Amino acid sequence: MNMVSLLRSSSYPCLRSRAVLAALLYLIIYWAVPLLVVQQAHAEEMEGVLPESGIRYPGGFDPNTVGKVEGKVQGYFQPKSGPVRFQVTSGRESYTVLVSPAWYWKDLGAKVSDGTQVRVRGSKSLGRDGKLYIIAQDIQILPSGQSLVVRSEDGFPLWKGSRRKPTSKHWGPGSSQRGMGGTKGGAGGMSRGRH
Predict the structure, then answer these.
(1) Do 34 and 56 belong to one domain?
(2) I need a labelling partner for 18 at 20 to 30 A (CA). Which of 33, 61, 121, 124 fits?
(3) Is residue 193 part of a domain?
(4) Which residues face 71 on adjacent strands?
(5) 3-class state of residue 121 by DSSP
């Protein structure tokens, strides 16, 4: 039964009211428009391979290669599509950090620019271009103590209708995070297995 015949039906007299009709239209617009926007945002982040590195994004996260890098942000880049990215040099190694879509990064309230000291935990890999990459799971901004979580413990992208809400928190004494998620090994080392 379509909406017009429903409104004309004598078995639904309460729907004849203009106020009720206005409320129904408002609810349809209130629920339909946000769903379309979310679907469009997800369409922009379809699974693919980043051309320069050959890394699958956003699904190229491997829990078996999780490690940490710490250093200063260089070359911060926020594209219209694809992941926010920047370089972090840790010792003699330089990593390209692949974070999240720009809209999600903005929603987290991230304040990162060139020169900001960060600690990144994520899945490390070597790109086909011979450069090191880390697909970020969480990022701690060291000057402020702000921590930005972009993936779940198993590497699921939280911007894709996550199984838990995105978080931005401060780590400190008594934190259940044990540093950067409790991974074993040094700041630049890789750890094996799930944590």
Answers:
(1) no
(2) 33
(3) no
(4) 118
(5) strand
Residue in the structure block whose two tokens are 């903005």: 106
DSSP string, 54-99: --EETT---GGGEEEEEEEEEEEE--SSSEEEEEEEETTEEEEEEE
Helices marked H in the chain = 3-8, 18-44, 102-107, 178-181
Reported pTM: 0.62
Q: Which amino acid is at 193?
A: G
Q: How many domains does the chain have?
A: 2
Pairing of strands 93-101, 132-141: parallel
Query: Which residue is associated with the tokens 């994520």?
Result: 122
Given the DSSP bridges, would you call strands 66-77 and 117-126 parallel, antiparallel or unpaired? antiparallel
Let me know if residue 18 belongs to a domain. Answer: yes
The whole-angstrom separation of Cα 80 and Cα 146 is: 25
Q: Is residue 191 part of a domain?
A: no
Per-residue pLDDT of the chain (195 residues; tens, 9 = 90+): 565 565 555 555 555 566 655 665 555 565 554 544 444 444 446 788 998 899 999 999 999 999 999 999 999 999 888 899 999 998 899 999 999 999 999 999 988 999 999 999 999 999 999 999 999 999 999 989 999 999 999 999 999 874 544 444 433 333 333 333 333 333 333 333 333
